[in-house]
Write a structure and sequence with these properties.
The protein has 101 residues and is mostly helical. It has one domain. 79% of the residues lie in helices and 0% in strands. α1 crosses α2. The chain starts with 9 loop residues before the first helix and ends in an 8-residue tail after the last helix. It holds the Pfam family NikA-like. InterPro entries: Arc_rbn_hlx_hlx, NikA-like. This is DUF1778 domain-containing protein. It comes from Streptococcus parauberis.
Length: 101
């Protein structure tokens, strides 16, 4: 097993000792838990936050696209209605001999 030595002040050593005892762990186990396990949790929470942000942006973008499509569909309905109306008006104004034109 590898060993790591770090320099700390007496106050820091006392604090680490106290915190380890409060958590009922050895100093080594406490430091390993704090460094390794909590950093993984922090990274996971950061990843979740980033994913949530990306998802919210994607939902917002898709909602804007849906709104634009709704507007386009409404405009197309108006165009079709106007075209049909003009066609009916044109057909109704034809004289009987222009029926085949």
């Amino acid at each position: 097993m590898a060993q790591i030595n770090i320099r700390v002040t007496d106050e820091q050593k006392a604090l680490i000792n106290k915190l380890a005892k409060e958590n009922k762990k050895s100093i080594s186990a406490y430091i390993i838990d704090k460094i390794c396990i909590e950093s993984v949790y922090q990274n996971d929470s950061k990843n979740i936050d980033e994913t949530k942000k990306v998802d919210e942006e994607l939902v917002s973008l898709l909602m804007k696209q849906v709104e634009q499509k709704d507007i386009q569909i409404e405009q197309l309905h108006k165009i079709i209605y106007n075209k049909d109306t003009k066609l009916l008006e044109y057909d109704s104004k034809k004289l009987w001999w222009q029926f085949w034109k």
